[in-house]
Amino acid sequence: MNTGDGDADGARPARTADALPKAPLKWPTGKEWMAIVGLPLFFDCFLWMLGRERLSVVITGKSATLTYVGQCLEGGGHTTPPPSCYGRWQFADGSTASGTIHDSSVDYGDTVFASADRAYSSLGSAWSEAWPVYALMIMPVVVSAIVWVNHYRQDRRERTRQLRNPHADEPEPETGRTDSPGSPEERDEEAAAGGKETG
What does the DSSP assignment read for the chain? Predict the structure, then answer.
């Protein structure tokens, strides 16, 4: 018989997992925010203090033309410092700067990528020194995000389980054996044992 509910026999459709209640969203607490954001931020600030000269070049640097090159140091080996020169350069707006050129194969009139006190032969050369520091700065942020997302999903899964089965964690009552025997055979054995003791 069709009851008009959608099923021919009048039975209600089975309840799917999507229809079951889920625990509400739960944002991190103040201490959790300190762990998620504070620790990576502190670590990144420490790395910035150590490598700010390399990092700032790729942010503030721009093309410039060398107007003087001297005091070059040929190096690059395992026991010698990297090659470098002292130089002065001029930017497109007419401003000038001077400092260390981290390359010894440059000459007067060459175009370099420079900041206020450092210069490289190209932007790629500047990035080759800066990217390891940037990678170390990004790593704790990514790790912290992965750890928090995993913790959030596990916490919500556990709260959802408790919401759907509120009595699942309650201890079961003890069902120990009573003092009196349960079966007729046990009662007969008890009676026989009592007769022997009185005899």
Answer: ---SSSSTT-PPPPPPGGGS--PPP----HHHHIIIIIHHHHHHHHHHHHHHHHHHHHHH-EEEEEEEEEEEE---SSSSPPPEEEEEEEETTS-EEEEEES-SS--TT-EEEE-SSEEESSHHHHHHHHHHHHHHHHHHHHHHHHHHHHHHHHHHHHHHHHHH-TTTTSPPPP-PPPSS--SHHHHHHHHHHHHHHH-
